[in-house]
Amino acid sequence: MTEREYDAIQYDLSKLLKKVRRGYSRAYGKREEAYEEGVLACKSAISRYNPNPKHREVCTQAKQFWIPITERLPETGDYILISFDNFSLPDIGRYEVGEDGGGAFYPGDEDVSYASVGVVVNAWMPLPKPYRQ
């Protein structure tokens, strides 16, 4: 694939993603996320054939999405980015499972859970890798 062909495909996919965001987000809600994931998967597949590492890196970073806690819970002890129902800013925290088998989300290294202070977790995502020169 030539650089020109690659850029043309990326342009078409970007236009498609804009249409999905504008036209389907209000009407279908979560369906938009499925479309975005599909488009980003296509971009990622195309980037494997592109000799330009800059494009490959951008596509890899774009694959991060919020994961609702109703769909899947994170691994215990891993630091993650956490979203809330009743607080506007995300936070870095972790998910721990107690001896009774019940789990809770905790801010950073704190021993007090978000739930115990009335903060409701609704989604999470893995943290990006740290910056390296």
Report on this structure.
With 133 residues, the chain is α+β, with helices and mostly antiparallel strands. The chain has three helices and five strands. The chain has helices at residues 3-28, 31-47, 53-61; strands spanning 67-68, 79-84, 91-97, 103-107, 121-126. The protein has a five-stranded antiparallel β-sheet, with no helix packed on it. β3 and β4 form a beta hairpin. α1 runs antiparallel to α2 (31-47) and α2 runs antiparallel to α3 (53-61). The radius of gyration is 18 Å and the shape is elongated. The two termini are 30 Å apart.
Number of separate helices:
3
Low-confidence stretches: 24-28
Q: What is the strand arrangement across the widest sheet?
A: 1-5-2-3-4
Let me know the average pLDDT: 76
Percent range of helical residues: 25-40%
Domain DUF551: 66-130
Protein name: DUF551 domain-containing protein
InterPro entries: DUF551 (IPR007539)
